[in-house]
Specification:
271 residues, alpha/beta, UDP-N-acetylmuramoyl-L-alanine:D-glutamate ligase, 9-stranded mixed sheet, 42% helix, 15% strand
Length: 271
């Protein structure tokens, strides 16, 4: 793993830093999305590695710059690989796909929480379930909005010492002391397999060049801007998926400027 000092850049500066660093991102992820996730990381400027085998996953995590653990299809070997990888100290993202509604991954998510993920990224129903405040959504589909999960996300961030990112029409990122609301994006991203899962991988890539809160904000801003650009070139899911990869490649720091990201401190958040 590369030696680095966490920094606190704007989303645009983080994008420049990522492309200069070409971080190696290990993805222990959903079997349905591996190809799309790898292509998105390559388009962004990172280097993907889908290394999830027990006996290799922990070894590889030591040289990776960021790690994603996505619970979308947690077969037995992959579960053991994740257990290895999260123990070596590489900053990592937990994506608790369908937690709450399915028992095996729910138990695994709570087990992995003990290893201090830098960022937890999920939809509102998943975050509420992980925080013990609901039974989850309808499989991978959220039944709640980010604003409904805001207090649960803040509490989860304080409990784990990390950052929680809640995806929705407007994304919420919180570390328990600050909230960031990221505006924009296009609903077509929700009609492409891997839209949310890929956001977890993008967040892991930004962990190589930014502290967790700033990494999650940058990742959400990148996906919002890229999905808007992709939608301007395509209005159907198939062509949108290709256009989204192109948009990630073409994205500039200027595309992330403006009032897309709004950050506020929380009075009394540490109490």
């Amino acid at each position: 793993m590369s030696v680095r000092t966490p920094v606190h850049p704007s989303p645009g500066a983080a994008l420049d830093a990522l492309r200069a660093a070409h971080p190696l991102v290990q993805c222990i992820t959903n079997a349905v999305v591996t190809g799309f996730t790898a292509n998105a990381l390559l388009a962004l400027g990172a280097s993907p590695a889908m290394c999830d085998l027990p006996g290799e996953a922990g070894m590889f995590a030591r040289v990776a710059d960021g790690l994603l653990v996505n619970l979308g299809s947690p077969r037995a070997e992959q579960r053991d690989g994740a257990r290895e990888a999260v123990t070596v100290g590489t900053p990592w993202v937990l994506d608790p796909v369908a937690v709450g509604s399915l028992p095996v991954r729910t138990a695994l998510a709570h087990e992995l929480l003990e290893h201090s993920p830098a960022v937890i990224r999920g939809n509102a129903s998943e975050i509420l379930a992980l925080a013990g405040r609901s039974a989850g959504g309808r499989g991978v589909d959220a039944l709640d909005r980010p604003e409904d999960a805001a207090n649960a996300a803040r509490d989860l961030a304080r409990r784990t010492g990390g950052t929680v990112a809640v995806s929705g029409e407007v994304d919420l990122v919180t570390d328990g002391e600050r909230d960031a609301w990221i505006h924009g994006g296009d609903a077509l991203l929700t009609r492409v397999t891997g839209g949310g899962c890929t956001l977890g991988a993008t967040t892991a890539a930004f962990l190589a060049v930014a502290a967790p809160f700033e990494a999650a904000v940058a990742a959400c801003a990148v996906h919002a801007a890229a999905s808007e650009r992709a939608a301007s070139h395509s209005r159907r899911p198939g062509s949108f998926a290709v256009a989204f990869l192109d948009a990630l490649d073409a994205l500039t720091p200027d595309d992330l400027a403006g009032d897309r990201v709004r950050i506020a401190g929380l009075i009394g958040a540490a109490s």
